[in-house]
Amino acid sequence: MFERFTKDARAVVKGAVGQAEGTGARHVGAEHLLLSVLDREGSRASFALTALGLDGRRESVRAALGEARRRAGLTQAETDALAGLGIDVPAIVARVEEAHGAGALSAGRGDGVRRSGHRPFDREAKDVLVGALRAATARRDRRIGDEHVLLALTARPGVPAEVLADHGVTYASVTRVLYGNDGAAAG
Protein backbone atom coordinates (compact mmCIF):
# COMPACT_ATOMS: atom_id res chain seq x y z
CA MET A 1 0.00 0.00 0.00
CA PHE A 2 2.86 2.42 0.80
CA GLU A 3 3.82 2.60 -2.88
CA ARG A 4 0.44 4.28 -3.52
CA PHE A 5 1.24 7.11 -1.09
CA THR A 6 2.17 10.52 -2.47
CA LYS A 7 5.35 12.23 -1.33
CA ASP A 8 3.32 14.25 1.21
CA ALA A 9 1.58 11.17 2.60
CA ARG A 10 4.90 9.36 2.92
CA ALA A 11 6.28 12.36 4.77
CA VAL A 12 3.31 12.17 7.18
CA VAL A 13 4.02 8.49 7.90
CA LYS A 14 7.74 9.11 8.39
CA GLY A 15 6.97 12.17 10.51
CA ALA A 16 4.65 10.08 12.68
CA VAL A 17 7.52 7.70 13.39
CA GLY A 18 9.61 10.71 14.38
CA GLN A 19 6.81 12.00 16.63
CA ALA A 20 6.62 8.61 18.36
CA GLU A 21 10.38 8.55 18.84
CA GLY A 22 10.27 12.08 20.24
CA THR A 23 7.72 11.12 22.88
CA GLY A 24 9.40 7.81 23.69
CA ALA A 25 6.32 5.84 22.60
CA ARG A 26 6.75 2.14 21.90
CA HIS A 27 4.27 2.29 19.02
CA VAL A 28 3.27 4.82 16.41
CA GLY A 29 -0.31 5.83 17.15
CA ALA A 30 -3.04 7.82 15.44
CA GLU A 31 -2.09 10.86 17.52
CA HIS A 32 1.42 10.72 16.03
CA LEU A 33 -0.11 10.74 12.54
CA LEU A 34 -2.12 13.82 13.51
CA LEU A 35 0.93 15.57 14.93
CA SER A 36 2.78 14.83 11.71
CA VAL A 37 -0.10 16.20 9.60
CA LEU A 38 0.01 19.37 11.72
CA ASP A 39 3.70 19.79 10.85
CA ARG A 40 3.09 19.72 7.09
CA GLU A 41 3.34 22.85 4.99
CA GLY A 42 2.37 23.35 1.38
CA SER A 43 0.29 20.18 1.12
CA ARG A 44 -3.42 19.55 0.60
CA ALA A 45 -3.92 18.65 4.26
CA SER A 46 -2.16 21.81 5.44
CA PHE A 47 -4.30 23.83 3.00
CA ALA A 48 -7.47 22.31 4.48
CA LEU A 49 -6.33 22.95 8.06
CA THR A 50 -5.44 26.56 7.23
CA ALA A 51 -8.77 27.09 5.46
CA LEU A 52 -10.55 25.78 8.55
CA GLY A 53 -8.75 28.31 10.75
CA LEU A 54 -6.40 25.92 12.51
CA ASP A 55 -3.24 27.88 11.64
CA GLY A 56 -3.05 29.87 14.87
CA ARG A 57 -4.38 27.03 17.00
CA ARG A 58 -2.04 24.15 16.19
CA GLU A 59 -0.39 24.44 19.60
CA SER A 60 -3.82 24.13 21.18
CA VAL A 61 -4.30 20.85 19.29
CA ARG A 62 -0.89 19.64 20.49
CA ALA A 63 -1.79 20.55 24.08
CA ALA A 64 -5.13 18.72 23.84
CA LEU A 65 -3.35 15.61 22.52
CA GLY A 66 -0.88 15.87 25.40
CA GLU A 67 -3.73 16.04 27.90
CA ALA A 68 -5.32 12.95 26.37
CA ARG A 69 -1.96 11.17 26.56
CA ARG A 70 -1.81 12.05 30.28
CA ARG A 71 -5.27 10.44 30.67
CA ALA A 72 -3.87 7.20 29.21
CA GLY A 73 -5.43 7.98 25.84
CA LEU A 74 -8.99 8.40 27.09
CA THR A 75 -11.13 10.80 25.09
CA GLN A 76 -12.87 13.63 26.91
CA ALA A 77 -16.18 11.86 26.21
CA GLU A 78 -14.86 8.71 27.92
CA THR A 79 -13.59 10.80 30.84
CA ASP A 80 -17.02 12.44 31.14
CA ALA A 81 -18.76 9.05 31.00
CA LEU A 82 -16.54 7.76 33.79
CA ALA A 83 -17.30 10.90 35.81
CA GLY A 84 -20.97 10.02 35.46
CA LEU A 85 -20.15 6.73 37.18
CA GLY A 86 -18.36 8.56 39.98
CA ILE A 87 -14.84 7.99 38.66
CA ASP A 88 -12.77 11.18 38.74
CA VAL A 89 -10.15 10.61 36.03
CA PRO A 90 -8.27 13.90 36.64
CA ALA A 91 -7.95 13.01 40.34
CA ILE A 92 -6.67 9.53 39.47
CA VAL A 93 -4.16 10.98 37.00
CA ALA A 94 -2.97 13.47 39.63
CA ARG A 95 -2.50 10.74 42.26
CA VAL A 96 -0.67 8.42 39.86
CA GLU A 97 1.59 11.24 38.67
CA GLU A 98 2.23 12.28 42.26
CA ALA A 99 3.42 8.76 43.05
CA HIS A 100 5.13 7.87 39.75
CA GLY A 101 5.93 11.13 37.98
CA ALA A 102 4.40 13.21 35.23
CA GLY A 103 3.14 11.24 32.27
CA ALA A 104 3.07 7.92 34.13
CA LEU A 105 -0.23 6.96 32.50
CA SER A 106 0.81 7.95 29.00
CA ALA A 107 -0.37 5.17 26.71
CA GLY A 108 2.26 3.18 24.89
CA ARG A 109 5.23 4.70 26.66
CA GLY A 110 8.31 2.70 27.26
CA ASP A 111 11.91 3.33 28.03
CA GLY A 112 12.30 4.83 24.56
CA VAL A 113 15.06 2.38 23.68
CA ARG A 114 14.45 -0.22 21.01
CA ARG A 115 17.25 -2.37 19.71
CA SER A 116 15.93 -2.57 16.17
CA GLY A 117 15.08 1.14 16.06
CA HIS A 118 11.73 0.10 14.58
CA ARG A 119 8.48 1.32 16.07
CA PRO A 120 5.45 -0.65 14.91
CA PHE A 121 2.16 1.05 14.16
CA ASP A 122 -0.59 0.34 16.69
CA ARG A 123 -4.08 -0.78 15.67
CA GLU A 124 -5.49 2.76 15.62
CA ALA A 125 -2.71 4.06 13.36
CA LYS A 126 -3.14 1.10 11.01
CA ASP A 127 -6.88 1.77 10.93
CA VAL A 128 -6.19 5.40 9.98
CA LEU A 129 -3.93 4.31 7.12
CA VAL A 130 -6.55 1.83 5.89
CA GLY A 131 -9.10 4.63 6.22
CA ALA A 132 -6.87 6.84 4.07
CA LEU A 133 -6.83 4.14 1.42
CA ARG A 134 -10.62 3.91 1.59
CA ALA A 135 -10.97 7.71 1.37
CA ALA A 136 -8.76 7.78 -1.73
CA THR A 137 -10.63 4.86 -3.29
CA ALA A 138 -14.00 6.46 -2.59
CA ARG A 139 -12.80 9.61 -4.37
CA ARG A 140 -11.37 7.50 -7.19
CA ASP A 141 -7.93 8.93 -6.50
CA ARG A 142 -5.14 6.65 -7.66
CA ARG A 143 -2.73 7.93 -5.02
CA ILE A 144 -3.17 8.32 -1.28
CA GLY A 145 -2.36 11.86 -0.19
CA ASP A 146 -1.96 13.48 3.19
CA GLU A 147 -5.47 14.88 2.74
CA HIS A 148 -6.76 11.30 2.80
CA VAL A 149 -4.86 10.71 6.04
CA LEU A 150 -6.52 13.83 7.48
CA LEU A 151 -9.94 12.63 6.33
CA ALA A 152 -9.31 9.25 7.95
CA LEU A 153 -8.24 10.92 11.21
CA THR A 154 -11.53 12.83 11.32
CA ALA A 155 -13.64 9.82 10.35
CA ARG A 156 -12.73 7.29 13.01
CA PRO A 157 -13.67 7.67 16.67
CA GLY A 158 -10.92 8.45 19.13
CA VAL A 159 -8.76 11.18 20.55
CA PRO A 160 -7.51 12.66 17.23
CA ALA A 161 -11.04 13.06 15.83
CA GLU A 162 -12.32 14.47 19.12
CA VAL A 163 -9.49 16.99 19.39
CA LEU A 164 -9.90 18.05 15.76
CA ALA A 165 -13.68 18.39 16.17
CA ASP A 166 -13.16 20.53 19.28
CA HIS A 167 -11.12 22.82 17.01
CA GLY A 168 -13.77 22.92 14.27
CA VAL A 169 -12.17 20.32 12.00
CA THR A 170 -14.58 17.52 11.12
CA TYR A 171 -14.89 15.04 8.29
CA ALA A 172 -17.65 17.18 6.75
CA SER A 173 -15.67 20.43 7.00
CA VAL A 174 -12.49 18.89 5.55
CA THR A 175 -14.49 17.32 2.71
CA ARG A 176 -16.16 20.67 2.00
CA VAL A 177 -12.83 22.52 1.88
CA LEU A 178 -11.08 19.91 -0.26
CA TYR A 179 -13.86 18.97 -2.64
CA GLY A 180 -16.49 21.71 -2.50
CA ASN A 181 -20.00 21.80 -1.11
CA ASP A 182 -21.22 18.80 -3.06
CA GLY A 183 -18.27 16.63 -1.98
CA ALA A 184 -17.61 15.64 -5.59
CA ALA A 185 -14.29 14.00 -6.26
CA ALA A 186 -11.55 16.42 -7.21
CA GLY A 187 -9.47 13.68 -8.80
TrEMBL record:
Keywords: Hydrolase, Protease, Repeat. Residues 2-184 form the Clp R domain. InterPro entries: Clp_N_dom_sf, Clp_R_N. This is Clp protease N-terminal domain-containing protein. One of its GO terms (molecular function) is peptidase activity. PROSITE patterns: CLP_R (PS51903). It comes from the Bacteria. GO terms for biological process: proteolysis.
